[in-house]
């Protein structure tokens, strides 16, 4: 429970067939590493002296047991690609591939031998040598070896006491009022998605499949209510990284982890373009419990101060790596740049982010739950009738008064042409270049299909030109985005990491690739087919996966017709001609219509 710790990890095992090693590590704030050494040393000694309680062991056994059981439940529908990968891995690692049933049986057989005494003995045999100490920091430290050893020796003199054990709570959020009444129930003939609505406005979409036995996926979307999400630096970041860690009013996050140890139960909520939401994976038997946990987070989120504090420490700790290379710098900044500086997107200024608190986002979250459109989708291996009852008793039971209209954000791409320079603090010779053009949204079907192909064509040209001819770059690529709403918003971009000296060359190759696709004969039939192949293969394979159906079912009532649009795009991609693509390139990739972003190393400070 110390300040500013991150990335705590413990590893035991072989390294490259050379040695068997044990390693504990953690990250601290830069001036706090001595405390980090003390925590590692004393935690290790605490385990050596006092061992582990039966309760701690039971919690871990429950988790592991559950994983083996889930693995068996899904073993009849493991994808052949995953089986092939598993076999290759087994051969490479000189291991024997075993069936999930055998693993479970073996685990259950050895369970009775796992006692606190046995575990303490094995632990002490494994961790019984004098350790090597290793410190990595972004600033030089005077006399670092002496300081490290001194900190370690100082810690060894501190006495350690037995860890406290506390009782595991019962989960209190199981009843939410009278069962919700259904007011609509129909099945979409084309997708097979059953669409239902409860009297409190909660919409439910169901799509049973048999792709992954034993797996049930759940998606939740909560549209904004009357209070829009505030435009404040880092508020979305606070929600995405700390809201769930803020726990519930009755159970903090740590208690929740203990309560659900050994259950296939999790929570994932973040803020998106037009909603709060998230997806999780569970199973049919635990669906009701899973929905109770989700509903509890909507009506009684804890938003506790400790989660806020940990968030601030994480922001401070991240400052060291935030600008560490041109890719990271670009990806942290681009989201905000591409939304004309809207503070709801991207990272923002650290000193501003550190001021953020849950109180600033609570009104828009509560307003979304009370008045926004709530849509839940369940996909995979489950029984429809049981799922409907489970939702009726949880989300369908809460009191709310949804409004007809929810707040929606209309994204705006910055005015082009424009040039920008970002700075990173990594390797002094490393740089990056991006050129991005505004395009359109997903509702323009033929443009959307064509732009997808154009992205692939440009990727092929860049790989061949930049990497193979200029050797200038690590891996140039094209990227794109198209809004689901009819906002006209979208973009197509080219990106490459390179050296500072090669930036002008990479820029020339970018321009040459764009000019080529705009020429009437610039895209050959062969080039188009190479670009089309992976797109069509993906489109053909996608409907054989739960992920695809979860995406469609997640908003099947608020965005009807997405599957029909997907089928149309498939036909359009199949038929698209080189001439049509060139026309599209001329329309959307004008010479004076791009946003150009270069990422340069920070100027070196002059030596004193």
Outline the structure in words:
The two termini are 41 Å apart. The longest helix has 26 residues, at 445-470. Helices cover 44% and strands 16% of the residues. The chain has a seven-stranded mixed sheet, with helices on both faces. A five-stranded mixed sheet has the order 10-14-11-13-12, with helices on both faces. It has 20 helices and 14 strands. It folds into three domains: 6-156, 2-Layer Sandwich (Cytochrome Bc1 Complex, Chain A, domain 1), CATH 3.30.830; 182-397, 2-Layer Sandwich (Cytochrome Bc1 Complex, Chain A, domain 1); 418-601, Metalloenzyme, LuxS/M16 peptidase-like (Cytochrome Bc1 Complex, Chain A, domain 1, 2-Layer Sandwich), CATH 3.30.830.10. With 608 residues, the chain is of the alpha+beta class. The protein has helices at 33-50, 54-73, 80-92, 100-110, 116-126, 144-156, 235-242, 253-259, 287-299, 305-322, 326-337, 350-353, 358-371, 384-393, 445-470, 503-518, 525-541, 546-554, 562-575, 578-588; strands at 6-15, 19-27, 182-187, 194-198, 203-208, 216-223, 270-271, 275-282, 374-380, 418-424, 430-438, 477-482, 490-499, 595-601. The mean pLDDT is 92.
């Amino acid at each position: 429970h110390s300040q500013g710790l991150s990335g705590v990890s413990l590893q035991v095992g072989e390294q490259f067939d050379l040695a068997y090693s044990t390693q504990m590590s953690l990250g601290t704030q830069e001036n706090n590493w001595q405390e980090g050494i003390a925590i590692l040393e004393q935690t290790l000694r605490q385990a050596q002296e006092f061992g582990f309680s039966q309760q701690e062991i039971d919690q871990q056994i429950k988790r592991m047991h559950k994983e083996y059981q889930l693995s068996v439940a899904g073993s009849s529908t493991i994808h052949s690609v995953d089986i092939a990968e598993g076999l290759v891995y087994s051969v490479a690692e000189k291991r024997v591939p075993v069936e999930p049933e055998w693993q479970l049986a073996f685990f259950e057989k050895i369970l009775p031998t796992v006692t606190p005494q046995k575990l303490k003995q094995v632990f002490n045999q494994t961790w019984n040598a004098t350790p090597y100490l290793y410190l990595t920091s972004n600033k030089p430290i005077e006399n670092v070896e002496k300081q490290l050893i001194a900190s370690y020796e100082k810690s060894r003199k501190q006495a350690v006491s037995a860890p406290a054990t506390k009782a595991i709570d019962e989960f209190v959020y199981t009843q939410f009022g009278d069962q919700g009444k259904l007011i609509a129930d129909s099945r979409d003939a084309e997708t097979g998605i059953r669409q239902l609505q409860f009297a409190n406005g909660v919409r439910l979409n169901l799509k049973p499949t048999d792709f992954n036995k034993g797996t049930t996926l759940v998606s939740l979307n909560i549209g904004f209510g009357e209070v829009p999400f505030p435009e404040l630096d880092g508020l979305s970041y606070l929600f995405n990284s700390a809201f769930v860690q803020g726990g519930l009013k009755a159970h903090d996050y740590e208690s929740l982890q203990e309560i659900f140890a050994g259950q296939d139960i999790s929570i994932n909520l973040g803020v998106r373009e037009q909603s709060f939401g998230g997806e999780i994976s569970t199973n049919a038997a635990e669906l009701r419990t899973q929905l109770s946990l989700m509903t509890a987070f909507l009506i009684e989120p804890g938003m506790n101060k400790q989660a806020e504090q940990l968030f601030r420490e994480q922001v401070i700790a991240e400052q060291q790596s935030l600008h560490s290379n041109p890719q990271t710098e670009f990806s942290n900044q681009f989201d905000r740049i591409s939304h004309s500086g809207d503070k709801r997107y991207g990272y923002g200024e650290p000193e501003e982010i550190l001021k953020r608190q849950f109180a600033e986002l609570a009104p828009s979250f509560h307003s979304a739950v009370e008045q926004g459109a709530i849509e839940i989708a369940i996909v995979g291996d489950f029984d429809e009738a049981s799922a409907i009852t489970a939702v009726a008793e949880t989300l369908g039971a809460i009191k709310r008064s949804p409004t007809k209209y929810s707040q929606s954000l209309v994204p705006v791409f910055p005015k082009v042409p424009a040039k920008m320079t970002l700075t990173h603090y990594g390797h002094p010779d490393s740089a990056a270049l991006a050129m991005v053009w505004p395009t359109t949204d997903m509702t323009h079907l033929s443009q959307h299909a064509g732009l997808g192909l154009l992205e692939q064509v440009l990727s092929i040209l860049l790989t061949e030109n930049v990497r193979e001819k200029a050797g200038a770059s690590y891996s140039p690529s094209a990227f794109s985005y198209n809004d689901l709403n009819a906002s006209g918003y979208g973009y197509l971009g080219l990106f490459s990491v390179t050296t500072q000296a090669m930036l002008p060359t990479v820029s020339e190759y970018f321009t040459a690739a764009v000019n080529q696709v705009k020429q009437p004969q610039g895209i050959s039939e062969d080039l188009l087919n190479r670009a089309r192949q992976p797109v069509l293969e993906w489109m053909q394979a996608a409907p054989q996966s739960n992920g695809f159906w979860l995406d469609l079912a997640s908003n099947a009532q608020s965005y009807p017709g997405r599957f029909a649009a997907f089928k149309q795009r498939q036909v359009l991609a199949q038929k698209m001609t080189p001439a049509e693509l060139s026309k599209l390139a001329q329309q959307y990739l004008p010479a004076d219509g791009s946003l150009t972003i270069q990422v340069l190393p920070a100027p070196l400070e002059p030596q004193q």
